[in-house]
Amino acid sequence: MSQKSHQGHDFKYLFNLLFALSQLVNIFFSLAFAEGFSEVLGMASETDYGNPTAGPVALFFPVYLLWRGFNYKIIHWFGYHAKADLNYQYVPPTLLGGGLAIVLPDFRKMSPKYKARYQQRSKLFQTIFYLGFVAWTWAVCYYGVKICYAITEFIGITNSSSAASMGITIVVMMFAEWKLTQLYYKVFPKVFKLDVIMTEHSQPVVGLRKKESE
Predict the structure, then answer these.
(1) Are the CB atoms for 167 and 95 separated by under 8 Å?
(2) 138 near 162, Cβ under 8 Å?
(3) Are residues 201 and 72 in contact, defined by beta-carbon separation less than 8 angstroms?
(4) How does pLDDT run along the chain (214 residues), one tens digit per residue?
(5) What are the TM regions of this chain, as residue ranges (predicted)?
(6) Hey, is 48 helix, strand or coil?
(7) What are the residues facing 200 on neighbouring strands?
(8) How far is it, in rounded angstroms, from Cα 90 to Cα 99?
(9) Which residues are bridge partners to 208 per DSSP?
């Protein structure tokens, strides 16, 4: 009983709160950076078919994801880790079981067993995986937004309502981003012949594939 009581006195709720606050700051900073960078490049006043250009829109995600990745790294340095699955709170629920999701990780203190298993990861390929994920997300967003704009322009929605065009683009991109992200998670370990040794916040942690003993 005393051991369970001792284990219960950790700082997981504090890290959950600090992570959420940091992510809130991250969102505002990433939006400001994307807008400021677009102004430097002279893209702030440009439009694609009457909508905001895809460049500044897509630029938000690399900045956001890099900051988020650093947040997870800080949590690791303090001896905590995110559970395998993210905590989804849907607002409101839909017929597809989804909706506008408030997504937060749930942190736990690392056990010696977990730490030993986590240390089996390949630091090199884990870094390549995450940087590739950032680049992949940018590419999907950038080219996906341009394709959606072109389609809505072709069918005449943009001419009648820019807001409708933007709304359709957002919905389509949310679905496409989720599907293509899952594809990236599956393809990356196969391409580099890696093992997925565990999952944190719905992302694979990869390690070098062990050779079978003869």
Answers:
(1) no
(2) no
(3) yes
(4) 444 444 555 788 888 889 989 989 999 999 888 888 767 665 554 555 455 566 677 788 899 999 999 999 999 999 999 998 876 554 444 444 444 445 678 899 999 999 999 999 999 999 999 999 999 988 888 888 788 777 777 776 654 456 666 667 777 777 888 888 999 999 999 999 999 999 998 899 999 987 654 4
(5) 13-37, 49-67, 87-107, 128-145, 157-176
(6) strand
(7) 203
(8) 6
(9) 194
How distant is the alpha carbon of residue 129 from its chain centre?
Answer: 12
Other beta carbons less than 10 A from residue 182's beta carbon: 11
Tell whether omega for the bond before 204 is within 30 degrees of 0, i.e. cis: no
Q: What are phi and psi of 204, to 5 degrees?
A: -70, 145
pTM above the 0.85 mark? Answer: no
- Report the b/e string of 18-34 with b at 16+ CB within 10 A: bbeeebeebeeebeebb
The SS3 assignment for 30 reads helix
- Look up residue 113 and give its two tokens: 């067993």
Tokens of 211: 């050779």
Q: Where are the alpha helices (DSSP H) in the chain?
A: 2-8, 12-40, 54-77, 112-118, 123-154, 157-160, 162-191
Longest dimension (CA), the chain: 69
The two structure tokens encoding residue 94: 């839909």
